[in-house]
Write a structure and sequence with these properties.
With 230 residues, this protein is an alpha+beta fold. It has one domain: Fumarylacetoacetase-like, C-terminal domain (Fumarylacetoacetate hydrolase, domain 2). 20% of the residues lie in helices and 33% in strands. The strands form 2 sheets. Strands 1, 2, 3, 5, 6, 7, 8, 11 and 12 form a 9-stranded mixed β-sheet that branches. A 5-stranded mixed β-sheet has the order 4-14-13-9-10, with no helix packed on it. A hairpin with a 3-residue loop joins β13 and β14. α1 packs across α2. The protein is globular and about 50 Å long. The structure holds the ligand O=C(O)C/C=C/C(=O)C(=O)O. The ligand O=C(O)C/C=C/C(=O)C(=O)O binds next to β1, α3 and β6.
Length: 230
């Protein structure tokens, strides 16, 4: 099996794989991996950025912006329940989501929680191998869309995951999360489609997601989003 097939199988069976030893083009492997999902009937719903905040770069020891793809199979209903048995070693993080409007503009903004799950053993990877693994993308939950007010960009974040509580700020995302849609279009190599979601990247370090947790992200002026795990 090639790397995309091994990553896809790891994702479907929740069994981690070793770091690749072959040479590969990271975004080409990611494209092959996403193609396998699309061939099974999944639909692209947007893109996600990674390592946009210093908290995440420091947590993972990786220092460059990365882009992954979102599909409808990754979307979880707001307030919904996620079965952790589907994943290898899932983690959760609070994010801001942007809805792409006409011509790559921002049509709306929402609080979001992303679930990441490295398909590699011990959640360890290089920059290249995490890109190939669709930047650990696993699932995402969106809160209610709000009108986009570009003046409100540096907003307080309160993130609770089980007993863990973290405070952050959306200003930690790229130094200014209003850059997220343009950065995503740059890394995607072209304009983003109207109606797509852009997850701008975590505002804090990620927390492990274990069964029986209640996860909430509250973002000033944007409201909150919640998820339960079993
Ligand atoms: O930490 C990872 O496994 C890669 C993903 C990073 C992000 O999604 C992020 O920094 O927001």
């Amino acid at each position: 099996m090639n790397l995309a097939e091994r990553l896809d199988e790891a994702c479907r069976t929740a069994r981690p794989i070793a770091q690749p030893t072959e040479s590969f083009d990271p975004y080409e492997v990611q494209r092959e991996l996403i193609d396998l999902r699309l061939k099974r009937g999944e639909r692209l719903t947007g893109v996600k950025l990674g390592f946009t905040s210093e908290a995440k770069r420091a947590q993972m020891g990786v220092h460059d912006l990365i882009l992954g793809r979102l599909t409808d199979a990754m979307a979880v209903q707001e307030g919904g329940t996620l079965d952790t048995a589907r994943f290898i070693h899932p983690r959760v993080e609070p994010e801001v989501a942007y809805l792409v409007g006409v011509g790559g503009t921002v049509a709306a903004v929402a609080p979001a929680v992303e679930v990441i799950d490295s398909r590699y053993e011990n959640f360890r990877f290089s920059l290249e191998s995490v890109i190939a693994d669709n930047t650990s993308g696993a699932a995402y939950v969106l809160g209610p869309w709000q009108p986009y007010d570009p003046a409100r960009w540096n907003l307080g974040v309160l993130f609770r995951a089980g007993g863990a509580v973290q405070y952050g700020s959306t200003g930690a995302i790229l130094g200014d999360p209003r850059r997220a849609v343009a950065e995503a279009a740059r890394l995607a190599g072209g304009p983003l489609e109207e109606g797509w979601v852009v997850l701008a990247g975590a505002a804090t370090a990620a927390e492990p997601l274990r069964p029986g947790m209640h996860v909430t992200a509250e973002i000033q002026h944007l409201g909150s989003v919640a998820l339960r795990s079993i």
